[in-house]
């Protein structure tokens, strides 16, 4: 017996000091692990953008900005909304009768000594647009203003989190009392473990048959912070010893504060919600300091089992558990009967408008890969991305809805779905003026598959390549020595092309041929025979050179099939090259990251778009005018018919085996790329018109309409020409019922008719 006691004590002492060393090491390492923080892009406001004062106020309320009176000084995180007279008085500027209101704010991350000079003001017109933007003190006019960049996610290693560290002083006493009442009523009395609690749990487990935990808050902290949740005797033993150790090293306030910051509070898509700071935002869209009794008791209810007591998915369970928390608080005299009744009758929170929870991880994957390519480790950085959450959500919904619809209504695709094949797609969106990529949807659902098709997918692009064939032509002369122009006639007839001892016979879609047609007509209708013939005339090597200059990095071999896109590209290359077209040949390197800051506050990366003019703007303008006809009356004519009528240009892309369907389109402001296909290269029998165009249209109706309906700003050295019906008939450009009787085209000066 004595020997057994001595051995037991020896094991206990060894365990105590061994676990103390392990806990100290883990505590120190975890304290020094700085999470990687990802911030979404700020909302950008521009003069003439569609916006109204109430909608803008809603955006800032959602980010927990505080409203102030128009004549009060604004501090960090403050805003005011004022009518015309109040605006004039505050801004000391006269406003005309069409300017009806103004909205001013100071972002939260502004230094205290720069508060006054950092105020931003939007002035609204009565037509629902922004008429003027003012910055600073004294005020200066600007074309753009920027909202707060919201924290999107935190990662420790590869673990995605939503976590906002709060101090115990920020947590209302009601919240602290609620969690102690339901989880550990003797928290302030015990030394880490509660023998009374353990015995009570054992008795209840035996008498009622229901499992009840006896863990204290300290034990729960140890399990969450130092150990795993595995159910073994060794883990429980370690938890017991480490809880006592923790209480000997830290006071109750430190333990409770740490617990409230690390406890698991649910799941928002791929991201774990950790701690009360993040939970307050997720469940109530509030700061934790603003929570009331009903909200504090609900959070305490959720702690026990975030899945079982989720107020959005299992409201009955959540209400029942909240009532139990309130009852416990009343029994401990933390609250009165009246307070309990009032809190018990408060409605549960509504489910939040989840922004891109299913696909935002694709964007963060693109961010990490960009920084990795620059050899910048992401650990511990604050990374400010260009992600537009609203646009990401819109793109995700547009893609998913279209793919779901095809799998329900398209007989062929429905059959493939029944055999276990899921149709996939991507959406990429870039801001032409900045070079920043706002949207990356790399698939339907990141939780289902982490393969990021928008970044790593390498697919045939089909007719997406054709604009570069036509651009190469516009830079050169015909075999007769005349410059190519949008109305140069091409031969669209079935033909055989001999090249390096081989014969290639491109076929038009539907095997229909149109004879002699002008270049713009061949491009808008995506005629393969005419395009291939043109490509051979202007030189395959020249086409390759142009494509590389505009941003295509993949290897391009100078084979005749190059003209019809019979090779693979990464979608990001398509985005880069089409943004260069949209910018009249001005190439801005694209980026997913605006800047990255290390733990010391030093910028380790700042985006520089590295602008260079890679081609004559007048020549590219002529190409854009031809690509506009694709949307006006060509293969993408469904776009205006379905409601997006802002000036835009683009190109459908369909591979000859119907395995890849693309649409790449742009306005003066945004370039959006859509691809639809199967990961295993199954034939879906879709075209760019039926596969890509519907997604593009739906997305642009939601997001593209933010911007003015401006046409492209045609550069110097161009001439705008309107071709009438007689001219179009003479050019053989009126062959279908939807062909217009008037076409507007841009010519490089000296090439116009």
Question: How is this structure best summarized?
Answer:
The protein contains 25 helices and 31 strands. It has 753 residues and is α+β, with helices and mostly antiparallel strands. A hairpin with a 2-residue loop joins strand 19 and strand 20.
Tell me what you see in this structure:
The chain has 753 residues and is of the alpha+beta class. Helix 17 crosses helix 19. The chain is elongated. It starts with a helix and ends in a 5-residue tail after the last strand.
What's the arrangement of secondary structure elements?
Elements: H1 2-32, E1 36-39, E2 44-46, H2 53-62, E3 66-67, E4 78-83, H3 84-91, E5 99-105, E6 120-125, E7 130-135, E8 140-142, E9 144-146, E10 151-156, E11 159-163, H4 173-183, H5 195-208, H6 217-225, H7 233-249, H8 252-262, E12 264-268, E13 271-274, H9 275-284, H10 293-304, H11 315-331, H12 337-344, H13 360-373, E14 382-385, H14 389-409, H15 411-418, E15 424-431, E16 437-441, H16 453-456, E17 459-460, H17 466-474, E18 489-492, E19 497-499, E20 502-504, E21 515-518, H18 519-524, H19 528-538, H20 540-550, E22 568-569, H21 571-582, E23 586-587, E24 593-597, E25 603-606, E26 612-613, H22 617-633, H23 638-641, E27 649-654, E28 660-666, E29 670-677, H24 688-702, E30 718-723, H25 725-730, E31 743-748
